[in-house]
Predict the 3D structure of the following.
Amino acid sequence: MSNRTVNINVHHITRVEGHGNIVVNAKNGKIEKLQWQVPEAPRFFEAMVRGRSYEDIQTIVSRICGICSISHSLAATKAVENATGIQVSEQADKIRLLMHYSEQLQSHVLHVGYLAAPDFFGVPSVVPLVAIAPDPVKTIIGLHRLGNDWSNLIAGRTTHPVTLRPGGLTKIPTEKQLRELQDRLKKSLADLTVMANVVLSVAGKIPQFERQTEYVSLKETNSSTYAFYHGEIASTDYKGTVPVNNWKTVANEYVSDQSTAKWTKWHRDSYAVGALARFNNNADLLSTTAKAVAKMFGLKKGCCNPYLNTVAQLAEAVHVVEKSIELIDELLTKGLKSEAVAVSPKAGKASGAVEAPRGILFHEYEFDRKGNCMSADMCIPTNQNHANIQKDFEKLVPEILDEPEDVIRLKLEMLVRSYDPCVSCSTHMLDVEFVR
Amino acid sequence: MRKPVVVLGLGNPLMADEGIGVYLVERLMDSATEYPAVDFVDAGTGGVSILYHIEGRRKAVVIDCAFMGEPPGAIRRFTPEEVRSTKVLAHQSLHEADLMRIIAMARQLGEAPDQIVIFGIQPERVELGQDLSRTLTERIDEYISMILHELES
């Protein structure tokens, strides 16, 4: 039995840009306090869209987040269309999926390169990593640039998309632009392989830790598609799927004293969302090279090491590129047509869900007959992971309590980072003092 | 080819004065035709995507809400060398970003513009809301003329 006394308090309390706190207090080998705390200020976006037109929702909610802005806009657009009975053409649907894939690439390469890689190389952030491993960093930046250009082309901007509207899109790319994008995507597969090999070379730094939990993500029934954009709610603890409109019976949001964010649970006392959850529900539907990347790391369906979420992201980054190459072929074979979108408001209430890079995202809206929003409800992936992070802490800490305090702290921080929580994206102001 | 100069407006227009950078860059876009060598970009809260917007440029002008210990509404023009970031990052999430660290990284990579100028505007209110405070609203013309003057230099 351990007789360690440990006091770890990783505090980052700022009420404007929130962070999570890690607290571990152990005395003579007995854990007295062990908490993942989320003290972030509530943001009330649901109240901000009340009274706004059904045509404006996707633009407003894109500002909820600077990293997952496309996912928020897409979830909102789908919810609006479901609520008001608006149909979308096959072409618009495919272009939106292409837009959604671009965000997955942007976000995943950043997560692997900027958040996870510094841990693997033993440096505190990506800035010193430039000096140690300039070539891998340049590869990551090149892939991120591709993701940005790709979002720019399809969404009209790298962040906060402007081409989405209920019923379709305000602007579509030209066939020539799609062909050029496809060429770059084909070339990027080599860079993605380089990135995977670099991570593999330091994969020994990924902690060995397992905890059985429930994994929740979208899944398309009787489909060959690894679900990001369509589908119903699936779980590793449940046969069958739940319609998106019933997401509240899945999330079962509740309040925890240690957090201002709501927590969720379904069949157990916590569940996980994100790349590993998608992988565990859809792994057999990954593209060929993505499967090879998963295999390189020994990642198999049923994996319950949360640190390997990063590896699942690597596989998904390859997957979205390969699938987008195919998607562009499908669009070009049919030929792009300009489509007029005519929609009219209608009363209704419904939800929309997409897989944001860090997990399943739900939006729900109700509109009156003029199309004005009467109520809104959103449930973000990070909130769905908080309880699961806490449960991971509770299993992990007793296992590592005899290790040096800074190793315990690092492993807990790496665990949090592996979920890539979305805790502070509503504001990004400068905070400076003048040197002279 | 990229235009040699970029003006980046940063911030979130749903958070009152925090959105000043976005508000100003949108106003500046009205004059875009008079500045053919300048890209005006609403970069929102895209974090490290700033790196992508500034790379390969000769000059970058960044407009952002800044806590500088000044009275609300104050605007200061400064370069990265003149300040030290006091922002505490948890390194838990991609959603955190610090402009000063991103500039440092761009320099290490040899991708930074030769000249980087920051216009910091001290906020009065950073809270939910789509309107700027009156203090900042009344000084918009002054901010715009300062930034345009920078582009002419």
Notes: DSSP finds five helices and six strands in chain B. The mean pLDDT of chain B is 89. Chain B has one domain: 5-152.
